[in-house]
Amino acid sequence: MSANKTNKRLSNIPFSVLDLSPIVAGGSPAESFRNTLVLAQHAEKWGYNRYWLAEHHNMPFIASSASSVVISHVAAGTSTIRVGSGGIMLPNHSPLVIAEQFGTLETLFPGRIDLGLGRAPGTDQRTARALRRDGRNDGQDFPEQLDELRAYFDPSLASGTMHVKAIPGEGLTIPIWLLGSSGFSAQLAGQLGLPFAYASHFSPGNTVPAMELYRRSFKPSKVLEKPYAMVGVNVIAADTDEEANRLGTTLQQQFLNLIRGNEVQLQPPVDSMDSLWSEYEKQALEQQLGSSIFGSPGTVKEKLQSFLNDTQADEIMVIAQVFDHEARLRSYEIVADIIKP
Question: DSSP 3-state assignment of 140?
Fold first, then answer.
C-alpha cells in the first residue's frame, strides 16, 4: 500500500459515529435510547458526518437490536446528520422487509439514510436460529440476498421481471454499504462498486489487507466512480492519558466477558485490569483491540493520524464504549476538536 499512500490529514476526511446504545450496569434500555439521542444531537452539532447503529441480539449490554426503529428515533431527533445501520445483518431478515423498512426511513427522512449491511448473525448460533427460523441460512447466500435487496430499490438490477415491489422503497436512492471484518465483503463491495466499511474496532489484524483487497477489486459503478472505504476504530479520549486508559477498561471488560461467555451489562471502569484477566486473556484482548486508541487530546491526535496513514481511509467511524454518559460525550467532543481544520 505504501506506493499508493497520500498525505491525508485528519482534517481532510469526514469522521462519523458508531453507537451500540450501550446498556450500563444498573441502567436500562430506555436510558440507553435517551443517551443515544443526546449523543447524536451533540455529534451533529460537533460536525460528525453520519451516525450509525448496529444490530446485535441477545446481548445484555446492547440495546440497538431493532436497528431500524432506533434509526428512526435518532433521525427524528436530529436534522442534518446522516443516520444509518452499521449494520443490518441481512441473513437475519427478508430482503423485502429491509427494503420496506429503509424505504420508509428514506421517505420520512429524505437524503439522510444509509443502509450498511453485514453477513454475520450479530449474535450466538442459538439466537441466530431463533431469528432466521431456517437453520440452513448461514450467510452463504449473502450475495444473492444483496442482489434481491438492491433490485427492490432499482428494478433495473433484477435478472427478470419484479413481481413483488417494495412500497415504499422502489425508486429511492439509498446508499448501500457492505460491512466486514474479513476479505469476503471487501472483495464483493469492490466488485459491485459499493462503499465498504471495515470493522477494525474488533478485527484489527486484517484491516490493511482488507482495504487493499477492496481497492484492487473495485470496479466503477453508477454508485461510485472510485473506491470509498470507511474504517471503524475504538477511540476513548479524556483530558489525560491516565483517565482515558481508565475509561478504556470498560471496553476491555466487555471483550473479556465476551470471550468468557459471561455476557453482562457494560461495567464501570477499574483502576487496573491485572486482577481481572489472565496473561493469556490479556494477550488475546491486546490482539482483538489492537487498533484501539485511548488517550489525551495530543495522544489521540498522534495515534489517529498514524491509523489514517496506515489505512488510507476515506472516512473514520469512531466507537466509544464508555460507562459514564458525560465522559462518553466528552470523548467525542475531544475527537471533534482534534479533527477541526
Answer: coil
